[in-house]
């Protein structure tokens, strides 16, 4: 009888843990909800540090980074590790610019690791070029020291450094920097802006080899190709509707909503196709705005409508009861999810169309090829 009880208990435990538990069992559904179509785990990350040369000759590189950001983000949004979609954090450094402090190696941390895609876009668009000394070992070492890389073995931690001067310049050895990177399980990928063989002879490939990463050479002056699709106009219409589902609150609310619109405009300045790519990013699980958007904030398990400052709510919610505010949040969330589903559905058709078009966006292709090959080593897939 005792054996029977133990067996029965084990069966019940396994049923409770099962991701495919039947919804008709209400008690079980409460204990273990069905897996969300866009899971957002708290502790698994893809961390990417971009180290960009902003000396005079690098205008083309910076332009490519601005123009291709959203397609890179979109591709990363499809990544899975054991059927879980990881978070994305991007950090940004510039180096080799005369406007920067020479005593600090002509290096500036533009942005620490962040999942705020609007802020990442803003900082990328703020970059300007000016002649200077380009110290690759110095900037790699600085990013390793300053950024919080974490210690989770499941995280994918990558540096992408791009430039066109010899890799061995400066007082900090790139060999030593690569050794430190390996100790932190950070992969160093190098992107030489120029002839492949010249990059090899100036140690860019050696830097990647020591950092267990990929060496790539690109033509940084090549213009980004944006291919329009038959689905773009509809996606942009949905972007307008999507923006109306954001509910700014708190001390940052209005400012952050303005930033969202500003980055929409920055993307549109390149082309409608680039704006479409940004809209697709905004419909993915990687676009998070819980610091200022009431709908995203309500997704946090610690969110409590009773504890928020009602004075910092938008005018249409001031004076409303908690129940009325929660109802409003629920309606806006449902509206947003429906719009995001429509965008994602159209994007599937868009991607199928774009697969028939020939493009060679070199920075984007180089980064994604390297990232995917390295991600496979940690059981990531697309």
- The share of residues in helices is 40-55%
Which percent range describes the beta-strand content? 5-15%
- Strand sequence of the main sheet, in spatial order? 4-3-1-5-6-7
Class inferred from helices and paired strands:
alpha/beta
CATH top level assignment of the largest domain = Alpha Beta
Rounded to an integer in angstroms, the radius of gyration calculated over CA atoms is 23 Å
| Uncertain ranges | 1-41
Domain count, please report it. Answer: 2
CATH level-4 homologous superfamily of the largest domain: von Willebrand factor, type A domain
Distance between the termini: 48 Å
Indicate the mean pLDDT: 88
CATH topology (fold) name of the largest domain: Rossmann fold
Label the CATH architecture of the largest domain: 3-Layer(aba) Sandwich
Largest sheet: 6 strands, mixed
Q: Tell me the number of strands.
A: 8
Basic shape: globular
SSE series: HHEHEEEHHEHEHHEHHHHHHE
| Number of DSSP helical runs | 14
